[in-house]
Design goal:
By secondary structure, the chain is an alpha+beta fold. It has two domains: 6-243, ATPase, nucleotide binding domain (Nucleotidyltransferase, domain 5, 2-Layer Sandwich); 254-429 and 451-481, Nucleotidyltransferase, domain 5. It has helices at residues 55-73, 125-132, 141-151, 153-160, 169-177, 186-190, 204-210, 245-249, 314-321, 327-334, 370-392, 411-421, 433-442, 464-480, and strands spanning 6-12, 16-23, 28-35, 39-42, 49-53, 80-87, 92-96, 106-107, 164-168, 183-184, 195-196, 201-202, 219-220, 228-232, 235-244, 260-265, 269-275, 285-290, 300-307, 344-345, 363-364, 400-404, 424-427, 456-458. The strands form seven sheets. It has a seven-stranded mixed sheet. Strand 2 and strand 3 (28-35) form a beta hairpin. Helix 3 packs across helix 4 (153-160), helix 10 (327-334) packs across helix 11 and helix 11 (370-392) crosses helix 12. It is globular and about 65 Å long.
Length: 481
């Protein structure tokens, strides 16, 4: 093995944890993973499903992966110059800051048990967006923290004893790995809905509204702070970066390209573009992407949009069609040429960006065949992606889309997005984007970070039938809304 510097990254996701090591040019040296389960259950007298993970299990998985890295590299462990973390932004946990014991399960980002707290809150959507860059949502951490403070006996006791810490899962992991320090980066902090977008600090107005004491929260630091030192195989590794998973994924190839939009389509679709402007178009979110410790260095933010109802709608579509939806069924449906109105108004998981409505019921246009229903479903995701890309492209400078995720494996999906947006679509099915981007952050966004990636490119073509269906979908959406 050569004697170049190495960089370690931890990617803690909803289904697994991955720990990987990369060279200074972005080449993966090794990668190890540990599964983590998610449980779903309803408590008696509760209308909400509790969606949780086990904090100790995830911590043990990370430690096991780190030990495998040590065994793989042996003496070369000393070549690791820095480490970084990327994780689930809106998942959080409570722990005892004297013993490190978890006082609650990890409340998943999917868990919305705190939603009743938003019913009579004295905070408008405009105020929320101005302060945090986000929308009022029970998916974010504030209402979950409030729930724990009111309903979890262990949390209430620890608070009385001044032994309570609450934060995103990154803070719990850092406490255990990095000298019992309770710290958090801007990306994770923002997803609590308690963090001020312009001040890079907890917002007292929001803390007061949600009745959350400031002293139970971790200390806010910058993305490239020294979060602490990791001891691995007798070697001390500075933890030099931390970010939310979707933000980290943008750095897989190095600094994100200014003329590009990044799309990942899985359970839902996640759309991002690089920006230095906090004033995003109405309907989009703004998130901290890279806020450096040195004030003269450039700050980077991301304009973001989510589109629900991609793979998350599979159950409904199978029920509606009576078919098992396979990649073959999807490819066949994408080739269908409907002769009459064919659209799906898709509210699976809520109608997200840029509309943000949760009070609508999904419906198809009339008299569709099973194959047309599959087409209408997929195109509903494509059409909403196109609307959000158009919002992000208000400057008119976006000419490239970088796409990944399960749906992007269908050539027709990529081609339709290219045809609607008039941008070249570059497909690189990089399943390691998050952990690779985190490693790039650990390397300080070095200009040498230039990993080799194979990709397919889809050039925009004239597609009048698709444009016609897009226009009819937009009209139907207007009536529906």
């Amino acid at each position: 093995m050569s004697q170049d510097n190495l960089y370690l990254a931890i990617d803690q996701g909803g289904q697994s944890t991955r720990v990987a090591v990369y060279s200074g040019i972005g080449e993966q040296v090794c990668c190890f993973s540990a599964a983590c389960a998610t449980t779903r259950h309803k408590r008696e007298n509760s209308a909400y499903e509790h969606i949780e993970q086990n904090a100790e299990e995830i911590l043990a998985g990370i430690r096991a992966c780190l030990e495998k890295v040590h065994l793989h590299l042996r003496d070369d462990i000393s070549r690791i110059k820095a480490a970084s973390f990327a994780g689930q932004g809106s998942s959080l946990v409570c722990w005892n800051n004297q013993t490190g014991a978890a006082l609650s399960p990890i409340l998943s980002w999917q868990d919305i048990r705190g939603e009743p707290w938003l019913d009579n809150i004295s905070l408008t959507p405009q105020e929320t967006r101005h302060l945090t860059g986000l929308r009022l949502s029970p998916h974010y951490g504030a209402t979950k923290i409030r729930w724990c403070l009111e309903h979890n006996p262990k949390v209430m006791q620890a608070q009385q004893e001044n032994h309570l810490s609450i934060g995103p899962i990154v803070s719990y992991i850092f406490w255990h790995l990095l000298d019992k320090k309770s710290v958090v980066d801007p990306g994770h902090a923002q997803r609590t809905l308690l963090w001020n977008l312009t001040h890079n600090e907890w917002d007292q107005t929001l803390l007061d509204i949600f009745k959350i004491p400031r002293d139970v929260l971790p200390r806010c630091q910058y993305h490239n702070s020294l979060f602490g030192d990791l001891l691995l195989g007798g070697h001390t590794i500075p933890f030099a970066a931390s970010a939310r998973d979707q933000g980290a994924s943008l750095f897989a190839r190095g600094l994100p390209e200014r003329d590009s939009c990044y799309i990942n389509i899985g359970t839902g679709a996640f759309i991002q573009c690089l920006s230095e402007n906090l004033d995003a178009p109405e309907g989009l979110l703004v998130s901290p992407l890279w806020l450096p410790e040195n004030p003269v260095d450039k700050k980077y933010y991301a304009w973001e949009a989510t589109v629900n109802g991609a793979a998350a709608a599979l159950g409904l579509i199978q029920q509606q069609t009576g078919l098992e939806i396979t990649p073959q069924e999807i490819n066949e449906a994408l080739g269908v040429k409907p002769t009459s109105e064919c659209y799906f108004l898709n509210a699976i998981g809520g109608l997200s960006a840029p509309y943000w409505r949760t009070d609508l019921q999904s419906r198809f246009s009339d008299n569709l065949t099973s194959c047309e229903k599959i087409l209408a479903w997929i195109e509903s995701v494509i059409f909403q992606i196109a609307v959000n890309v158009q919002l992000m492209d208000q400057s008119g400078l976006m000419n490239k889309i970088i796409i990944s995720g399960g749906f992007s494996k269908a050539d027709a999906v990529c081609q339709k997005i290219a045809d609607l947006t008039q941008a070249n679509v570059h497909r690189s099915d990089n399943t390691d984007a998050t952990v690779q981007g985190a490693a790039c952050m650990a390397a300080g966004l070095a200009q040498t970070w230039q990993p080799v990636m194979d990709e397919d490119i889809f050039i925009p073509q004239e597609n009048l039938p698709l444009l016609n269906r897009f226009e009819k979908w937009q009209y139907a959406m207007g009536q529906w809304l």
